[in-house]
């Protein structure tokens, strides 16, 4: 599956952004979809993930602020981010896996939260 992320940008503290990921390929609904992020000088971390059936999980740092969703018949995943903080500044990556590790990665999209 090929992944294309979009929607990053510059936003002020407390603002919102919506990241989108378009997937090309077959059997999109069979993949677990995720969003990772990597801040400068830090390790990449899993922010949110959603199963084919729509069950979502979040990193503690974004719970209550971020929402991941998917539309299987449109091969699309979104990450709605609200109440953004400076520590949310990072490059965000759309990813996919069937089993085990996330094997498919899109190009990153930069989110910058200014204070």
Distance between the termini: 37 Å
What letter string, H or E per element, gives the SSE order? EEEEEEEEEEE
How would you characterize the largest beta sheet?
A: 7 strands, mixed
Number of H/I helices = 0
What is the global morphology?
A: globular
Number of strands: 11
**What fraction, in percent, of the residue positions are helical?**
under 10%
Low-confidence segments, given as residue ranges, are none
Radius of gyration: 13 Å
User: What structural class should be given to the helix and strand makeup?
Assistant: mainly beta
- Report strand %: over 45%
| Mean pLDDT score | 96
Q: Could you describe the 3D structure shown?
A:
It is a single chain. By secondary structure, the protein is mostly beta strands. It contains no helices and eleven strands. The strands form two sheets. Strands 2, 4, 5, 6, 9, 10 and 11 form a seven-stranded mixed β-sheet that branches. It has a four-stranded antiparallel β-sheet with strand order 1-3-8-7, with no helix packed on it. Strand 7 and strand 8 (76-81) form a beta hairpin. The model has no long low-confidence stretch (mean pLDDT 96).
């Amino acid at each position: 599956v090929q992944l294309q992320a979009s929607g990053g940008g510059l936003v002020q503290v407390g603002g919102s952004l919506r990241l989108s990921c378009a997937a090309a390929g077959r059997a999109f609904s069979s993949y677990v979809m995720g969003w990772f992020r990597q801040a400068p000088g830090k390790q990449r971390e899993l922010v949110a993930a959603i199963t084919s059936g729509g069950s979502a999980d979040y990193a503690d740092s974004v719970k209550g602020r971020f929402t991941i969703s998917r539309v299987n018949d449109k091969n699309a995943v979104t990450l709605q981010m609200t109440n953004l903080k400076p520590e949310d500044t990072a490059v965000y990556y759309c990813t996919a896996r069937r089993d085990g590790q996330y094997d498919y990665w899109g190009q990153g999209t930069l989110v910058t939260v200014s204070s």
